[in-house]
């Protein structure tokens, strides 16, 4: 008789949840892209970004006002890293679920590179592939070449400074995207929570919102975290390691 390990049992339990779910969405964080070579933010790993850098100095309006050149240099260093990475097995497994919505805190576009339709990716924290005007009343945006990102410069429309089109600490999430994500999480049978510390709000509140409206929750993360307590099943392996097996054979959708 074959011995079934605890990990095997949890994988089987997670697949049973998916098999009985009609409406499934994914909510991902930095752990989704870790196996592509992008650093996470809060993991115990000494390479985690917020163990090496002060988030307020580099990812806030206050930090940008105090030293805009330092902020742009840091983001352009990150952009150089992003230029050389590719989707991993987790991105590809999610892209195989062509009807499923991807809610992500990641500012990379590895899901889209893996084949997810852009309209099915809700970027809660913006995009590192774009710059926008720091003046909230100005709508100017432009694409950035990750291999040759531009330096600190003025907005051609209003003269204010351009900055990465990401959401910094203390800033609101993009209203339309946030509304879509919240609405979706009130009508799910299962929410896949992948590689997120679930400590950055308001985005992390989507897990509790889904729970409150009857959704099951499957957490995929090698480390226990804030999301683990809300999980029906916690798969303690990396996303690239477990998602292909978890999603194999399913055709999951987020619609009715």
Mean pLDDT: 91
Q: Give the ordered list of helices and strands.
A: HEHHHHHEHEEEEHEHEEH
CATH topology term of the largest domain: Rossmann fold
End-to-end Cα distance: 41 Å
Strand arrangement, major sheet:
3-2-1-7-8-9
Rg (C-alpha, Å): 19 Å
Please indicate the percent range of residues in DSSP E strands (runs of 2 or more): 15-25%
CATH architecture of the largest domain: 3-Layer(aba) Sandwich
Helix tally? 10
Tally of discrete structural domains: 2
Estimate the global geometry from the Cα principal axes.
Answer: elongated
Which structural category do the helix and sheet elements fall into? alpha/beta
Beta-strand segment tally:
9
What would CATH call the class of the largest domain? Answer: Alpha Beta
Largest sheet: 6 strands, parallel
Share of helix among residues? Answer: 25-40%
Relevant CATH superfamily of the largest domain: TPP-binding domain
Question: Which parts are unreliable, with pLDDT below 50 for 5 consecutive residues or more?
Answer: none
